[in-house]
Design goal:
single chain; 190 residues; alpha/beta; Beta-carbonic Anhydrase, Chain A; 2 domains; 5-stranded mixed beta sheet; 5 strands; 16% strand; Carbonic_anhydrase_sf; carbonate dehydratase activity
């Protein structure tokens, strides 16, 4: 049975048993916040539970490294929509220790791409089109600096309401312990 078959079978039972009822909530976040965090599997539930949130409390945006890679990309758009269309009044940027994007081997990733069918001609075309693939895939050296960099990108965005607090945290993916990187209320930041 494929993964998709498993998903569809489970879903049929999930709907038939009305298991969805316990997750019923509104589309606006009750705690009026948006969380940007990493897609790391260790954070699937931990990223909200360790912060005391439950279903419906906040909007969650996940990507590789909890990183805003472009000021007009989908991550920044999601944060802006959260604020202006979905009632969020605060943003939390939460990186994590031992993040794969903190030490990603770009050459190894590109080699795997080649092994899976992306040929050198494609890389050459992208390069000649002005796309620096290694830089596009590159992560960061320090998770704390990455959180700060994301916060600065948000506050410097021309469409962002500067009165919205943006907090920065780093979570331990093993214990859930948090380090404060930036207090969006203007209090003690690292």
């Amino acid at each position: 049975m494929t993964l998709l078959d498993q998903i569809l079978k489970y879903n049929k039972d999930f709907v038939a048993s009305k298991a969805y009822e316990q997750y019923s909530t509104s589309k606006t976040p009750s705690k009026k916040a948006v969380l940007l965090t990493c897609m790391d599997t260790r954070l699937q539930d931990l990223s909200t539970k360790a912060l005391g949130f439950t279903n419906g409390d906040l909007k969650v945006v996940k990507n590789a490294g909890a990183t805003i890679s472009h000021p007009y990309g989908s991550t920044m758009r999601s944060l802006l929509v959260g604020i202006y269309a979905l009632g969020a009044e605060e943003i939390i940027i939460m990186g994590h220790k031992d993040c794969g994007m903190g030490n990603i081997d770009v050459d190894a990733v590109m080699k795997t791409m080649e092994q899976r069918g992306v040929d050198q001609k494609t890389f050459d075309i992208l390069e000649h089109s002005g796309i620096d693939v290694p830089n596009f895939l590159k992560g960061f050296d320090d998770v704390y600096e990455n959180v700060e960099k994301n916060i600065q990108m948000i506050y410097s965005h021309p469409l962002f309401d500067k009165k919205v607090p943006v907090h920065g945290l780093v979570i331990d993916p093993h214990t859930g312990a948090l380090d404060l990187v930036h207090d969006g209320y203007g209090k003690n930041s690292i």
